[in-house]
Amino acid sequence: MWKVIVRRILLMVPQLFILSILVFLFAKMMPGDPFTGLIGAKTDLHQLVALRRAAGLDDPWWKQYIRWIGNALHGNLGMSYNLHMPVTTVIGQRAINTFWLSLLSVIMTYLFAIPMSISAAKNESKWQDKLWLTYNSITFGIPPYVVYLLMIVIFGFTLKWFPTGGTVSPNAVGFFPVLISRIYHMILPAFSMAILGTTGIFTYFRSGILDEETQDYVKTARAKGVKEKFIFTRHILRNASLPVAAYLGFVITGLLSGAIFAETIFGYPGLGYLFIQSITGRDYSMITALILLNGFLGLLGALLSDIIMAIVDPRIRIE
């Protein structure tokens, strides 16, 4: 298993190399540059030309790419044109916020989806099943930003139960007050992401339970008089959880890289919010680094899913 994991990791190198070229080219194809926003009535155009030349933006794209990839291999992803800080420093600061938000969202998602799936499967075609099927159909069809805006209006501005931006209250001092404040700021965006993220898990888990209940080994166990509770918990749930366990890898990496709408609307300073700011500010260095990170997380998600599957069911071997 470890040899396969190492081989898969090594395979990521050429994949990320090709992705880096595409990302760099697409970033250069964007209209304008990081200094375009500085143009005004009193702007010295000669100074802007000097800034572009100093930043190397007038060089051919391949020279810029070689310079960028060479620095990246040494851990230097460049400077953020907008924030005037090293890209690695900014991403490191924002990644911590996104990680904790994603972790809380994953926990909430599974806490919602698993009982929901079990309830629907054990009451197939009854009102419980129809209720959860309808709920997931609705949440799947609603654009996420609509739900996020409603959550802010209802729980942020109207009821004033939760903050509508930031990560920590200014008056929080000390480890535990800061920790509580950080969790308090994450509850609303994490809950909003969780109630929209149950569809995939619900579909896989409900279908898996229903399929396992029709298997011969389940019929044999029932014929032998094995208790229904034992059959359900030790056999049906275990086998039905395999697709859900595999899905976990993509859920984790998807939340780390896909919380753009949530972080932007809730004003949560994570990687998603940073990505939107970088695009609007034409921050080439930050855009290329974030998209490359997103591609790496996608490859990591596939590997994590295979590893989780192998752990849950030792009969499965990743290749």
UniProtKB/TrEMBL annotation:
- GO CC entries: plasma membrane
- What is the topology of this protein in the membrane according to its UniProt annotation? Multi-pass membrane protein
Localization in the cell: Cell membrane
Instruction: Name all ABC transmembrane type-1 domain ranges.
Output: 95-305
The GO biological-process annotations, alphabetized, read as: peptide transport; protein transport; transmembrane transport
Q: Which domain of life does the UniProt lineage start with? A: Bacteria
- TM annotation in the entry: 9-27, 99-121, 142-163, 183-205, 244-266, 286-312
* Keywords carried by this UniProt record: Cell membrane, Membrane, Peptide transport, Protein transport, Transmembrane, Transmembrane helix, Transport
| Family the entry assigns | Belongs to the binding-protein-dependent transport system permease family.
Q: What is the protein named?
A: Transmembrane protein
